[in-house]
Amino acid sequence: MTQPSICYFDNNATTRVAPEVVDAMIPFLREHWGNPSSMYAFGRQVGEPMDRARAQVAALINAEPREIVFTSCGTESNNSAIHSALLTQPDKRHVLATAVEHSANTKYCAFLQKRGYTVTFLPVASDGALDLQQLEASIRPDTAIVSVMWANNETGVLFPIQEIAAVCRRQSTLFHTDAVQTPGKLKIDVRELDVDFLSLSGHKLHAPKGIGLLYVKRPVKYQPYIVGGGQERGRRGGTENVANIVAFGRAAELVLANLPDENTRIRSLRDRLEDGILAGIPGTARNGAKEPRLPNTSNIAFDGVEAEGILMLLDQAGICASSGSACTTGSLDPSHVLTAMGFSAARARGSIRFSLGRYNTEADVDYVLSHLPGIIAKLRANSPGE
Ligand code: PLP
């Protein structure tokens, strides 16, 4: 199958696996396919590369290797952190989250509510910001954990994680942050942030799908979410996904090496795209604060059109973008993030997210800027309201 040429602006949904990462993982599919828990050398030989990968991902976030628990994805990491906080503190049955978390958090919280736990979803302002005084006032004696994402996957809006961690510390409450969207875009230092748990997902940083991690600060108590063998020092049962773990390590190493350069380059491409759309197409507005925001994300509302129509015509031109989070694309529900920011269902349904990444070029941005005005004009001309 030959790779069609695409103009990819959906890096918050997933990223292309870096060629260096593919090269690093292939030997663990072809040759070194033993089980790391086995007694013979053929299996045990994969232990050292896994240790290296653990050290590489730990270095990305300035953690100790033994504070890393490999999981299958960001969703599992988020679920695991909340699950553990509830199990290790059985007398605490309240979870504090925000209304704009990823469904990997909100749906798990809704699941908990049905089982008798209490969850508070904090509101956000129209620019996506959180009120920290309200957050502090919402922490209760029975709050087991506060779980707040660092960067919003739909708008790119950043929450002040270090300040929230300080609030939680003051209130003696555990704090988890979903940092899935941050690698390659922000410096991640768990010591500086002072969080108890932090989630990452490999496929957002040019590693394959099916690998994630949960950082668990020492000596925070931890109860496994997946119970089975003694893998991950008893913190996550299941034979290790060796090739993906090695890939994750290599991808983390590349992210660390490329951070300053990518961040600046991608930010300037994003700004050029966003400025070009806002200036060149009437009836457009950015959703969410300009800053503080991820350098790669732009979420734009287009008056009088449906995102579905825009995405279809973009697709015909070979451009990949998305409306809201990938997990809700295909459903007619307006984005819960944009709705929580107080936007009408019509505005939420007419909004598109462009998320850039390592492999985007100026030519990609120019290509979108040359096609989008015509697409919007065509849709508006055909819209019954016009
Ligand atoms: N959290 C955020 C902020 C995300 O953007 C995503 C994926 O889109 C996830 C969690 C879930 O990660 P995964 O797809 O690895 O389960």
Structure, explained:
By secondary structure, the chain is of the alpha/beta class. Helices cover 42% and strands 13% of the residues. β5 (143-147), α8 and β6 (174-178) form a beta-alpha-beta unit. It is globular, with a radius of gyration of 21 Å. The protein starts with 6 loop residues before the first strand and ends with a helix. The model has no long low-confidence stretch (mean pLDDT 95). Pyridoxal-5'-phosphate is lined by residues 73-75, 78, 102, 104, 149, 153, 178, 180-181, 201, 203, 212, 325.
Would you summarize the structure shown here?
Helices cover 42% and strands 13% of the residues. The protein is globular, with a radius of gyration of 21 Å. It is built from 15 helices and 12 strands.
What layout of secondary structure does this protein have?
Layout: E1 7-8, H1 19-25, H2 27-30, H3 41-44, H4 47-61, E2 68-71, H5 74-88, E3 94-98, H6 103-114, E4 118-122, H7 132-138, E5 143-147, H8 161-170, E6 174-178, H9 190-193, E7 197-201, E8 212-216, H10 231-234, H11 242-280, E9 284-286, E10 297-302, H12 307-316, E11 319-320, H13 336-340, H14 345-349, E12 351-355, H15 362-382
Parallel strand pairs: 1-11, 3-4, 3-5, 5-6, 6-7
Antiparallel strand pairs: 2-8, 7-8, 9-10, 10-12
Helix pairs in contact: 1-11, 4-11, 5-6, 11-15, 12-15
Bound molecules: pyridoxal-5'-phosphate.
Residues 73-75, 78, 102, 104, 149, 153, 178, 180-181, 201, 203, 212, 325 line the site of pyridoxal-5'-phosphate.
